[in-house]
Write a structure and sequence with these properties.
- This protein has 10 helices and 8 strands.
- The longest helix is centred in the last third of the chain and has 18 residues.
- α5 packs across α6 and α6 runs parallel beside α7.
- The strands form 2 sheets. The chain has a 6-stranded mixed β-sheet with strand order 4-5-6-1-7-8, with helices on both faces. It has a two-stranded antiparallel ribbon with strand order 2-3.
- It is of the alpha/beta class.
Length: 243
């Protein structure tokens, strides 16, 4: 008999909004995300995408509406950055993957939107930094023209400069493309700055859902992370984050 890892999960993600999952390591954040995108089987319940159950949609339909960036590093062989971004058009190009002029225009526009990648499209993807890779993967996600992007710990491998740059780009993408974003973060300071709604995951349940100003109190964060009261203190106030 299958045993649920986490129960009573009810989430709503709207376009133009960022919903962030926080919680201790191993609390179930990745389990929720992997269940939503179909990597893990549900014990019960339904995941709806644009009002229709995921099971009732084809893989191609889902790929046109949902883009996914998971924690595992992508290591494509012999692919340039432009090749990686172009792969976001596969749900639209058919089995041969031949890009039409309109597809190529979307690739270039997606590269422009993530910013700072003008000199990178023809470089090998394997030869660029982790921060640059994440921008290229965001551009690939944009290429899918999705309604929602799901990200699992997108800042895990990045230093603080790239963390802030990546989330600045993500915030801008949400505004300019009217996207819904669902992600998990372990950096509480970044979650507090970027989120419209915060979902607090505590092992076998969702403990609380609310706006950042309600969630990020010292007393509650200390309780959620089982820290000594008063230990939580945001420390990135001097760093520039441009929403």
């Amino acid at each position: 008999q299958k045993k649920p890892l986490i129960e009573d999960v009810t989430l709503h993600v709207q376009r133009g909004k960022i919903v962030t999952l926080i919680g201790p390591n191993g609390s179930g954040k990745s389990t929720i995300l992997k269940t939503i995108i179909g990597q893990l089987s549900k014990v019960s319940g339904t995941v709806f995408l644009d009002g229709k159950a995921m099971e009732a949609r084809s893989r191609n339909e889902i790929a046109r509406r949902m883009a996914i960036l998971m924690t595992a590093r992508m290591e494509p062989e012999l692919m340039t950055c432009r090749d990686v971004v172009s792969s976001g058009r596969y749900p639209y190009t058919g089995r041969l993957g031949i890009l039409q002029p309109e597809d190529q225009a979307i690739v270039e526009r997606s590269l422009e939107q993530v910013g700072g990648m003008e000199d990178f499209p023809d470089r090998p993807f394997s030869a660029i930094s982790d921060g640059q890779r994440q921008r290229i993967l965001l551009a690939r996600a944009l290429c899918q023209e999705p309604e929602i992007i799901v990200l699992d710990e997108p800042t895990s491998f990045l230093d603080i400069r790239y963390k802030l740059e990546l989330l600045t780009v993500l915030k801008r993408m949400v505004r300019e493309n009217h996207l819904a974003v669902l992600l998990s973060l372990h950096e509480l300071e970044l979650a507090e700055r970027i989120s419209d709604t915060v979902v607090c995951v505590a092992g076998d349940r969702i403990d609380r859902i609310g706006p950042p100003e309600e969630i990020f109190t010292r007393a509650y964060i200390a309780k959620l992370y089982q820290m000594e009261h008063g230990k939580y203190d945001p420390c990135f106030d001097s760093l520039e984050f441009v929403p």
